[in-house]
Amino acid sequence: MNGIQPIETSLGPVQAAFNGQGEVIYLGFPGHEFRALLLTKLARLGPVDRPDSKDVRRLQEQLGDYATGRRRAFSVPFRLHGSPFEQRVWAALQGIPFGETRSYGELAAALGDPNLSRAVGRANGANPVSILVPCHRVIGANGALTGYAGGLPMKERLLRLEGAIRT
Questions:
Q1: Residue 16 — φ and ψ, nearest 5°?
Q2: Up-side HSE of residue 115: CA atoms within 13 Å toward CB?
């Protein structure tokens, strides 16, 4: 797909796509298990142009600052495309503070139905802008780390970086 920009960061390689307004519409990891599905969904939105180098640089700098502990929140603009339910889940993810976690069940309960934890998990996995929308802050009910686009070692690294889990 045109417009996917590989970016080297201190977190490792990521891939990003931007819309014509400089908003991130995809941020993921090269080996993400749902990558093909997310990119297919993105392609249906229309052609993705090559990003402006300043947009790529801003994203790269903010990810670098985050990785070194100098940034807790991102100001990079992004646009989320998904179903109304996915939008609700992604909004809830953005409400999880830096350094904290929530279980799928807790998110489902916050959305009004504790029986929706599996649906919350699917929406979490469909998050098109990893890290910016902190899906890594969602863990199993027993505190176990569960699936993550960048793999469990990356999820653990991000949560340690944020102080959400300790040795």
A1: -135, 155
A2: 0
Residue 38: how many other CB atoms lie within 10 Å: 20
Which residues carry out catalysis?
A: 135
Give the Cα separation of 74 and 65 in Å (integer): 10
User: Between the CA atoms of 81, 82, 86 and 88, what dihedral angle is there, to the nearest 10 degrees?
Assistant: 50
Full-model pTM = 0.90
CA separation for the pair 150, 42 (Å, rounded): 19
153-156: long-range pairs with CB below 8 Å, 24+ = 154/11, 154/12, 154/29
Cα(51)–Cα(130) distance, integer angstroms: 18
* 105-137 confidence digits (pLDDT tens): 999 999 999 999 999 999 998 899 999 999 999
